[in-house]
Recover the amino acids of this structure.
């Protein structure tokens, strides 16, 4: 039996022809509700849940549904014919992907080569300036040495002049001696000034060297602000099958989670519209980054949760308590949530969301990967390990999905000193059901 025939049998078994879609009623169906796309009995009409809706007889419903199926079948046949060369199209797409990969890789290589060249040239210029400053200071010291020799000789000559003045005192007039004494005093003052500042001159003036060092430090700090990029801390994140809402479905490789549209016609519990799941990984220290494709849902939450055993047992929603920090999308409108503090995020239409957590500095950043813009940053102090957390809101007549991208090639193992194994613990989902999760 083919999978398709099995699916049809399953559908027939779920929809008895003599009962309405409410199932709990035993009356025979009498009408078809066009608005709700379901069969109705007299109980359904009496309870008022289909008031002001459009109805059809069962015969008209069958006729109209068959016509609709015929139209859809024609479209399907057209698509099948249009895309009958799928293998050829995929082959072309693979070639285009390979060409794009090679082109971007060359571009990245060129940019990094240019960057290396700029840095190397800047370093060479810095060394040249350093060498020139060193030579300049050496010249100054050399001139001090030459001046020192001159002053030493002058000092010896002055001592001889002093002796001569004493001898001339006996034979020359006072006026004549005063002239010689005045010249000697001026020479002594010059000598005194020289020797009093000699230590300062000998001690190398390294202000230019220090200024250059500060300049290079500023270059370093400026680059440090830009580098490293968050994706250098790529973490291999996977969904945890055992720590999820019961309505969620996780793919075999644990990188995709799905939520089918939940019916709320017979329940007023709107919390059933949303479901959470945690990752299998938790982080206590270091920097970690992952990316999530959010195009499969307009209602989602992505962030981290913190372990706190004393708080378990209380119904929680992501971002509604002190243990969770998330970016949330409500029909495409973004808000940052933590402990019921709501911050509107201007950026919209996010397709691929980047999440960067720095456990050491207490930073949680969200990025629009496509534009490179930072959407929001939480600044806090994580009192324990954190675990990636995700939430999905149900969509009418469609499946909501989140996909975690792999940021490392196959065969490359992510290993971080800040990553911890998963222990048992609890974190309550939004419908009040307690789920066993990682002890964060």
């Amino acid at each position: 039996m083919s999978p398709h025939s099995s699916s049809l049998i399953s559908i027939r078994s779920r929809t008895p022809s003599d009962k309405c879609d409410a199932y709990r009623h035993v009356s025979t169906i009498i009408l078809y509700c066009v608005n709700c796309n379901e069969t109705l009995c007299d109980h359904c009409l009496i309870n008022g849940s289909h008031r002001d809706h459009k109805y059809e007889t069962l015969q008209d419903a069958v006729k109209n549904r068959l016509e609709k199926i015929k139209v859809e079948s024609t479209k399907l046949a057209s698509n099948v014919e249009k895309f009958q060369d799928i293998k050829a199209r995929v082959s072309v797409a693979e070639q285009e992907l390979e060409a794009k990969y090679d082109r971007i890789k060359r571009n990245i290589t060129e940019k990094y080569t240019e960057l290396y060249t700029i840095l190397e040239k800047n370093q060479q210029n810095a060394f040249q300036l350093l060498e020139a400053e060193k030579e300049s200071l050496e010249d100054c010291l050399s001139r001090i040495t030459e001046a020192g020799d001159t002053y030493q000789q002058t000092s010896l000559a002055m001592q001889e002049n002093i002796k001569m003045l004493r001898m001339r005192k006996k034979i020359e007039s006072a006026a004549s001696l005063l002239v010689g004494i005045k010249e000697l005093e001026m020479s002594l003052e010059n000598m005194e000034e020289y020797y009093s500042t000699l230590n300062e001159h000998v001690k190398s003036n390294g202000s230019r060297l220090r200024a250059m060092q500060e300049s290079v430090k500023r270059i370093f700090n400026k680059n440090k602000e830009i580098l490293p990029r968050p994706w250098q801390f790529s973490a291999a994140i996977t969904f945890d099958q055992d720590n999820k809402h019961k309505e969620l479905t996780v793919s075999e490789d644990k990188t995709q989670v799905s939520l089918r549209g939940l019916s709320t016609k017979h329940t007023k519990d709107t919390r059933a519209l949303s479901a959470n799941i945690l990752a299998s990984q938790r982080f206590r220290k270091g920097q970690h980054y992952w990316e999530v494709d959010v195009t499969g849902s307009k209602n989602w939450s992505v962030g981290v949760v913190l372990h706190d055993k004393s708080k378990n047992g209380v119904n929680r929603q992501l971002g509604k308590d002190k243990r969770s920090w998330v970016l949330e999308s409500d029909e495409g409108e973004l808000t940052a949530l933590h402990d019921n503090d709501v911050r509107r995020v201007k950026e919209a239409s996010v397709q691929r969301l980047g999440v960067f957590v720095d456990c050491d500095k207490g930073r949680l950043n969200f990025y629009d990967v496509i534009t490179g813009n930072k959407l929001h940053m939480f600044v806090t102090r994580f009192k324990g390990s954190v675990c990636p957390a995700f939430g999905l809101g149900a969509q009418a007549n469609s499946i909501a999905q989140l996909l975690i991208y792999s940021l490392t090639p196959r065969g490359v193992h992510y290993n971080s000193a800040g990553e911890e194994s998963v222990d048992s613990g609890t974190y309550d989902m939004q419908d009040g059901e307690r789920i066993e999760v990682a002890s964060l």
